[in-house]
Amino acid sequence: MKATLRARLVPSTTVTYPFPETRIPAGFPSPAEDYAATEIDLNSELIRDEAATYILRVTGNSMIDAGISDGDEIIVDRSLTPTPGNVVVAAVDGEFTVKRFSIDQQGQGWLLPENPAYPPLPIESGADFTIFGVVTRCLHHVH
């Protein structure tokens, strides 16, 4: 699964949207509830460090079991320190890839896909490898 750089997020203003305080069920609807509306600012919800936040468009299906599909945009924060278990964007031999970062008991680093059809990628000693940033959100397209 590859990711292509779309844009760096630079919020210049606060934009708020109505945000009901109740949750919307995906099962059977709740009969009658009063929806008290507040507002939500997507910039403050999605961006922790605006100078280090990027949106990338994903191509491929290696992360579908993590909820990241072909064509989705991911929000990546370069200011976060990656830890094992994080979904990261890594540059391997000059190409971006989206995978789950892992370190095994022997200290070997891995980039793990979230689709059994794809093999794990070992992080080889001396390889041209960099973790670009940590994925914080996925903007999933509903079809």
TrEMBL record:
It comes from the Bacteria. Keywords: Autocatalytic cleavage, DNA damage, DNA repair, Hydrolase, SOS response. Residues 23-135 form the Peptidase S24/S26A/S26B/S26C domain. The keyword Metal-binding does not apply. One of its GO terms (molecular function) is DNA binding. It holds the Pfam family Peptidase_S24. GO terms for biological process: DNA repair; regulation of DNA-templated transcription; SOS response. Belongs to the peptidase S24 family. This is UmuD protein.
